[in-house]
Amino acid sequence: QVRLVESGGGLVQAGGSLRLSCAASGRTFSSYAMAWFRRAPGKGREFVAGITWSGGVTYYADSVKGRFTISKDNAKNTVYLQMNTLNVEDTAVYYCAARPGSLITVARVYDDWGQGTQVTVSS
After folding, report:
1. Pairing mode of beta strands 18-25, 78-83
2. Which among 118, 83, 121, 77 is positioned nearest to 98, based on CA atoms?
3. For position 39, what pLDDT does the model report?
4. Quick one: which H or E segment has residue 97?
5. Hey, what's the torsion of the CAs at 1, 81, 16, 95, to 10 degrees?
């Protein structure tokens, strides 16, 4: 069974940075796509960034392009989300998700989810 554990959230001032981690376990992820989604208060789950485990292909939402970077460490089975130049609109619960196959930006096709980590950006 796939297990995803996020960490690294917290409170940061606007303009600051955070790095989220997603530790994955339970199977071999070589054919998987991994993604970060977020849910702001009163809003639906939004795709943030994704990466394919084998080829390292990445894709970003327009709202975070140039500020966020997704990466992976194969040896640690961990995916990271480096978030720079944070603004108040980035405040949300951030979730790590995994699915076998290609990278897709739609939340409902992801089979496995972490518990989420809160990111709060103050003005």
Report:
1. antiparallel
2. 77
3. 98
4. strand 92-100
5. -40
User: Which two structure tokens, joined as six digits, stand for 106?
Assistant: 């739609």
Question: Which residues does residue 119 pair with via DSSP β-bridges, in sequence order?
Answer: 10, 92
In whole angstroms, how far apart are CA 92 and each of 2, 52, 57, 73, 100?
24, 24, 25, 25, 26
Nearest by Cα to 79 from 39, 45, 112: 112
Mean pLDDT over 74-94 rounds to 97
Q: What is the pLDDT of residue 76?
A: 94
pLDDT of amino acid 98: 97
Three-class secondary structure assignment of 21-50: EEEEECCCCCCEEEEEEEECCCCCEEEEEE
Identity at 73, one-letter amino acid code? D
Q: Which two tokens stand for residue 6?
A: 């996020």
